[in-house]
Specification:
By secondary structure, the protein is of the alpha+beta class. The chain has helices at 12-20, 26-44, 52-59, 104-112, 154-161, 178-184, 219-229, 247-250, 274-289, 303-329, 340-351, 354-374, 400-412, 423-434, 440-444, 473-486, and strands at 47-50, 72-76, 115-120, 140-141, 144-148, 167-172, 187-190, 211-216, 259-262, 293-296, 380-384, 448-455, 461-468. It has a domain at 7-256 and 477-486: Alpha-Beta Complex (Amidase signature (AS) enzymes).
């Protein structure tokens, strides 16, 4: 059976409508998506586990009557399980782990009608904001293959940007939906904490900082998918307040005259690239032209203290992930099973006392209270998503002495070295310098989105980052749809593009 050559002229809701009207079959869409993946994946390495035969089988069966009936979809290979398909988390240690059940999010995606064609690349355990795992190799940016696609949902963002699929799964614990959305020029929203379920295997991930959603070409696809997946699952420790009406109904509604603060000053220690500054300035002018009240204002936090507390939390969570992974895999983990920086984070986690971990979490919670006070005066905050355009692949990998020290640390398994090994903290500073805006709003739990509104002179996308009040995705969807209409991005195509 042939494909559907007009595939990339539609968003996911548009394709689903064609399936419902029987103008195209789900199998035709699947075949078209498979051909596109096979065409461009060798150049960008976004899909690391095809599921084509399973997808074809499902496309020919009875399709759920969800909003995305029969639409091809890709699942990030991190945090969620698809029964009978490996969940590798970008790690050699998990390369043979096959779960026997679906995660609740996967059940909801299936009920929404999507057909999962495969799994996308992610860094090991999702720990860094670039997608370069040793297990599968780097995902390249469709706009410039020598550049990063971002992370940790880099494979999903690159696949959507290259028009393999109109929508793909991601998750976000420090910016991991918004970062690759910015790098790849697609739309990416991180929902409010507790909006989407994370069961049945976890009550929360990364102390509630991490949450699942999607990367899309259109605003309305993101809204409709959030309608399909939002709400608590059995045993959820907490959940976000329900919206007043479906998020899809917000798309196209007048957002009113919003009070919008903007800043290009980094919230964590960093230098912000002039292209990112220019993007924010142009976007602030656009917002003012659209009738919003726009003024420059910056939330005040101790960025260095925030970064230290965040790193402490990540070390503890990495230790727990690896130790729980040992039970899933059925053997003890060793340094050879992981990349040196991952193993170093785990060893650091072992050196952190329960009191230190708890104090770090409380420190982050206090920062969230400070940020909450800032939003008493504003509806939305605008920043660059990132501090710089997409960097060259490999630029943030450990080099020289740092790489040697990390490998030595892993081979010796020597906790005493941790007191003199400043390398891991230096690496963390480099990472935070790339993402000085996004992690703060994982800690606060507020909804935030990267909107593809600006491209620099080199043709690289630079996302604009909008943050709303806790529980108020509705305002963000209304604003995003207004911006989408004022400065459309759907027809912008990267040099590496299927179709």
């Amino acid at each position: 059976m042939g494909g559907f050559r007009e595939y990339d002229q539609y968003d996911a809701l548009g394709l689903a409508e064609l399936v419902r009207r029987k103008e195209v079959s789900s199998l035709e869409l699947v075949e078209e998506a498979v051909s596109r993946i096979e065409k461009v994946n060798p150049q960008i390495n976004a899909v690391i586990h095809p599921m084509y035969d399973l997808a074809r089988q499902q496309a020919q069966g009875e399709l759920p009557a969800g909003p995305f009936q029969g639409v091809p979809f890709l699942l990030k290979d991190l945090l969620v399980h698809y029964a009978g398909v490996p969940t590798r988390c970008g790690s050699r240690f998990f390369k043979d782990f096959v779960p026997d059940h679906d995660s609740e999010m996967v059940r909801r995606y299936k009920a929404a009608g999507v057909i999962v064609l495969g799994k996308t690349n992610a860094p090991e355990l999702g720990l860094v904001p670039f997608t370069e795992p040793e297990l599968f190799g780097p995902t390249n940016n469709p706009w410039a293959p020598s550049r990063t696609a971002g992370g940790s949902s880099g494979g999903s963002a690159a696949a959507v940007a290259a028009r393999m699929v109109p929508m793909a799964h991601g998750n976000d614990g420090g910016g991991s939906i918004r970062i690759p959305a910015s790098c790849c020029g697609v739309f990416g929203l991180k929902p409010t904490r507790g909006r989407n379920p994370i069961g049945p295997d976890l009550g929360e991930a990364w102390q509630g900082l991490a949450i699942d959603h999607v990367l899309t070409l259109s605003v309305r696809d993101s809204a409709a998918m959030l309608d399909a997946t939002a709400g608590p699952d059995v045993g959820a420790p907490y959940f976000a307040p329900p919206p007043a009406r479906p998020f899809l109904e917000e798309v196209g509604q007048d957002p009113g005259r919003l009070r919008i603060a903007f800043t290009t000053k980094p919230l964590l220690p960093a230098a912000v690239h002039p292209d990112c500054v220019k993007g924010v300035e142009e976007t602030a002018k656009l917002l003012a032209d659209l009738g919003h009240h726009v003024e420059e204002a910056t939330p005040q936090i101790d960025g260095s203290a925030f970064a230290r507390a965040f790193l402490t939390m990540v070390c503890g969570e990495t230790q727990a992930d690896i130790e729980e992974g040992e039970k899933l895999v059925g053997r003890k983990a060793a340094s050879r099973d992981f990349e040196p920086s991952t193993w170093a984070l785990m060893l650091l986690g072992r050196q952190i006392s329960s009191g230190e971990f708890t104090r770090a979490v409380r420190t982050l919670q206090r920062f969230a209270r400070q940020i909450g006070q800032f939003f008493e005066a504003y509806d939305v905050l605008l920043t660059p998503t990132l501090s710089m355009p997409p960097f060259k692949t490999g630029a943030l990998q450990p080099k020289g002495f740092e790489a040697f020290a990390l490998k030595l640390l892993g081979s010796l398994n020597a906790g005493a070295l941790l007191n003199v090994l400043a390398g891991i903290e230096e690496l963390a500073e480099q990472v935070f310098a790339f993402i000085p805006f996004t992690p703060v709003f994982n800690v606060t739990g507020q909804p935030a989105m990267s909107v593809p509104l600006y491209w620099n002179a080199e043709g690289l996308p630079i996302g604009m980052h909008f943050v709303g009040r806790y529980g108020d995705e509705a305002t963000l969807f209304r604003l995003a749809a207004q911006l989408e209409q004022a400065r459309p991005w759907f027809d912008r195509r990267p040099p590496v593009c299927a179709g």
